[in-house]
Structure formats: structure tokens, C-alpha cells
Design a protein that fits this description.
This protein is mostly helical. Helices cover 73% and strands 2% of the residues.
Length: 331
């Protein structure tokens, strides 16, 4: 057992070093969420604030009666900033987990995995090393993105979380990375070449941001697409992160807007996926956490089933089997 743990540690460190040596991969893994944040700051943020402000003035004009326009704009900006940072952290947990799985495909394509299997260690150690290294890589990068987001909130005046909120956000991020890591390992198991991995990543990264409500609120998507989003674990992690990020700003906003009730503010922001609905049924925060835990266990079980079967084993796919040819002897 001690030798297995030592081998696992060595393989995890090896996978992390290989990923970190690819500086372009590390750079683009961090650049993608930062670009989303910059797009929001430069373009999307103002549009969303204008949209919420228009709805506020049309439906709840009494809340801002007598308030200076700058005060209203600053309050709405604080809400939208936290909404966007939560989405950036949520989407990073998924995209970075996918990028961290590139070593699996590269090892299989280059035949490096055959050298690893020649060592006297169980195969499950090799599979587990990819999952653990992916989790460690995703955690380091996503935590960096979280810190960048918090620094932006502090500089923009939108920081309104306490220490308990931060711990809850930190725990939700870990659950999200765990769920995404197991899911991405399972998906990447079906990809055989680095070219196919790159092509799939370009489509996947663009699509998953909309399906999890990170780029735009799920309430603005067509109803059939919303039903699809209900079955994606990343949607629940993004919604849970938004609730935790926006809890403080909503309290501040309710006091700012003439002591408005929190429910009124929530109704105003109902289209911005602060909460989560499963086919119209409200999902509580504890239920979202259970979805993330349950999805992690489901993906783990699928990986065990997938790798335990020789016919569907990831590292056995695509291998040529030597069939014995039968020759008929003429008498």
C-alpha cells in the first residue's frame, strides 16, 4: 500500500509538472476567465446595468424615489459586478478542469502510458493520478481567478462579503472542481488525438458558458435550452456561487433603496439566475450542494465501470487486435 501511495504521489507530481511546463496552456487557462471579466467591464456591464435600471424604473419606481442617479447606478453596478465574478469563477472550474486533462490524451497518443503500465503498480493508480492532478491544477488556477475577482470587487467598491461567505464560496468552488474533474476525465476518455481534443475544446468552451448561465442569464435562453441546463451540474455550481456572492450586495441594496424588502430585490433580479429552478421548481442552496456531491459520485461510478471493462477501457481503445487467421489445408 505504501508503494502504491508513493507511485500515486509521483504520477500526480509528474502530471502537474507536465502541465505547468506548457506555459501557453497555463497562460490561456488563466486568460480565458480574465478576458470574460474584461469584456464585462468594457462592454457587457454597462448594458446589463441599463437593462436592470430600466426595469427598476418601470416596475419599482417608488424604491428609488428621491435617490441620486449616481447612487442608483453604483448600487446596481455592485450587484452586477458580483453576478459576473461568480459566473467567471463558476465557468473556470469547468474549462480549467478540461484543459488539465490534456496529459491523458498526450500520453496515450505518444505511447508514454505503455511505459507507465510496465511498472509494477495497479492500473487504478494511473487513472486516479490523472483525476488528482487535474483537481490540483484546477484548484490552483481557479483560486487565482477567485483572488483576481475579489481584488476587482475591492477596487470597484462592490466587495460585500464576510469571512463566512468566503468560506462558503471556497467550499462551493472545491465541490465544483471535484464534480468537473471527474466529468472531464470521463469525457476526455472518448477523445483519441490531440487534434480532436483541441477542436472539441474550442466548441465546448464557447457552449458551456451559455449552458451554465455564466455569460448570460439562463432566464433569457429559450425554454428547451433552459431544460437542458437543468441537467448540467455546472449550472448549479454557478447558481450557488451567485447566491453566495450576491448575498451581501442584496442586503446593501435593500437598505439603499429606501429599505426595500429583499424579496423585492430578488424579483427585480429574477431573470439573472440568482436562484435555480428545476422545471419551474425552486432549488434550495443545500439541494444545489447535494447535486454537486451526487454528480461527483455518479461520474466516479461511471469511470470505475468504464475502466474496469477491457472492451471500453480508455487505454485499450483503438488498439489493433491480432486475429488468428485460419488456413484451410487442401487434401
Amino acid at each position: 500500500m505504501k508503494n502504491n501511495l508513493l507511485a500515486l504521489k509521483s504520477l500526480v507530481i509528474r502530471n502537474i509538472k507536465i502541465f505547468m511546463k506548457n506555459r501557453m496552456m497555463v497562460f490561456f487557462s488563466i486568460l480565458a476567465p480574465v478576458l470574460s471579466l474584461l469584456l464585462y467591464i468594457l462592454f457587457l456591464g454597462k448594458m446589463q446595468i441599463i437593462g436592470v435600471k430600466a426595469e427598476l424604473l418601470s416596475k419599482y419606481a417608488e424604491l428609488v424615489a428621491g435617490l441620486d442617479e449616481k447612487v442608483v447606478d453604483n448600487g446596481l453596478k455592485m450587484i452586477m459586478d458580483n453576478w459576473m465574478i461568480a459566473g467567471v469563477v463558476g465557468i473556470s472550474c469547468i474549462t480549467v478542469s478540461f484543459n488539465s486533462c490534456t496529459s491523458m490524451v498526450r500520453d496515450r497518443a505518444n505511447g508514454t502510458i505503455n511505459d507507465v503500465f510496465a511498472a509494477p503498480i495497479p492500473k487504478w493508480i494511473v487513472y486516479l493520478s490523472y483525476i488528482l492532478s487535474g483537481f490540483c491544477i484546477s484548484f490552483m488556477i481557479c483560486f487565482s481567478v477567485l483572488i483576481i475577482g475579489i481584488i476587482y470587487l475591492v477596487c470597484s467598491g462592490g466587495f460585500a462579503m464576510n469571512f463566512l461567505n468566503f468560506l462558503a464560496i471556497f467550499g462551493t468552488m472545491i465541490l465544483s472542481i471535484l464534480s468537473a474533474s471527474f466529468c472531464m476525465v470521463l469525457i476526455v476518455s472518448f477523445i483519441r488525438t490531440e487534434g480532436a481534443l483541441t477542436a472539441f475544446n474550442s466548441v465546448f468552451s464557447a457552449m458551456i458558458g451559455f449552458l451554465t448561465g455564466s455569460y448570460m442569464p439562463i432566464g433569457m435562453l429559450p425554454l428547451p435550452v433552459q431544460y437542458i441546463c437543468d441537467f448540467i451540474p455546472g449550472t448549479y455550481s454557478s447558481a450557488l456561487l451567485r447566491q453566495l456572492f450576491m448575498e451581501g450586495p442584496i442586503l446593501k441594496l435593500s437598505k439603499l433603496f429606501n429599505g426595500a424588502d429583499k424579496n423585492v430585490i430578488n424579483r427585480l433580479l429574477s431573470d439573472y439566475s440568482i436562484g435555480m429552478k428545476f422545471f419551474g421548481i425552486n432549488v434550495a442552496p443545500w439541494a444545489m450542494a447535494l447535486v454537486l456531491i451526487g454528480s461527483t459520485l455518479i461520474f466516479m461510478a461511471l469511470i470505475i465501470i468504464f475502466y474496469s471493462n477491457k472492451k471500453t477501457n480508455y487505454f485499450a481503445l483503438g488498439r489493433l487486435t491480432n486475429k488468428k487467421k485460419k488456413f484451410s489445408v487442401k487434401k
